[in-house]
Write a structure and sequence with these properties.
By secondary structure, the protein is an alpha/beta fold. It contains nine helices and four strands; from the N terminus they run E-H-H-H-H-H-E-H-E-H-H-E-H. A four-stranded parallel β-sheet has the order 3-2-1-4, sandwiched between helices. Helix 1 crosses helix 4 and helix 2 (43-62) runs antiparallel to helix 3. The longest helix is centred in the N-terminal third of the chain and has 20 residues, at 20-39. It starts with 7 loop residues before the first strand and ends with a helix.
Length: 194
């Protein structure tokens, strides 16, 4: 079957439709102003450590080793461990909740996201993300993008995470559109393309 035009376009959320780097940066700035002295690290070091811990524990979440909440808790516990501060799970959850509140307050779509989605409204549009289904859906709603999509698919929902081909294939199956007629738009060469 020759490829003339896509029947569906699937999008990543963070870094593609939504400015996640900005939201994380603003939330960590607030986090550092409150907890930086206890951590004993600079704002820059906090950002670097946060990214490192996200990479460690989010991979564990994607592998099904821990839940979304457990990976959040593990990031906070590990962050404070270097300062010799032992946190109970409840304390770690409370600290993450404060961060998440600032993170949510900073969610914004890229300025070109909605105009692009409106231009592409002749195609079936959907989301394929490794993020948490509830959180990704909330992001799309708060950013004013949710009504553009026929479906929101996540790794926890599909049973596979990107870059596994099965994640892409299952999203296409749910849309009832052959993968050969779909395009994927993301921001990570490794996760979204290779």
């Amino acid at each position: 079957m020759p490829f003339n035009s896509p029947a569906a376009i699937l999008f990543d959320v963070d870094g593609t439709l939504m400015d996640d780097d900005r939201a994380v940066s603003l939330a960590l700035t607030s986090f550092h102003s409150h907890l930086g002295p206890k951590l004993g690290i600079s704002a820059y070091d906090l950002v670097m450590r946060w990214r490192e811990l996200l990479n460690i524990h989010f991979v564990r979440y994607l592998a099904g080793e821990i839940s979304m909440q457990e990976q959040r808790r593990a990031r906070i516990v590990d962050l404070f461990a270097a300062s010799n501060i032992d946190l109970t799970p409840k304390m770690a959850d409370s600290i993450f909740a404060a961060y998440e509140s600032d993170y949510r307050a900073s969610w914004t779509a890229y300025p070109d996201a909605l105009p692009v989605l409106k231009t592409l409204s002749g195609c079936v549009l959907a989301v394929l993300s490794n993020g948490d289904l509830a959180q990704q859906t909330q992001k799309l709603q708060l950013c004013g993008l949710a009504s553009s999509f026929s479906g929101v698919f996540t790794s926890s929902d599909l049973g596979y995470s990107k870059p596994a081909p099965e994640a892409f294939a299952r999203a296409c199956t749910r849309l009832d559109i052959p993968p050969q007629r779909c395009i994927y738009v993301g921001d990570s060469l490794e996760t979204d393309a290779r």
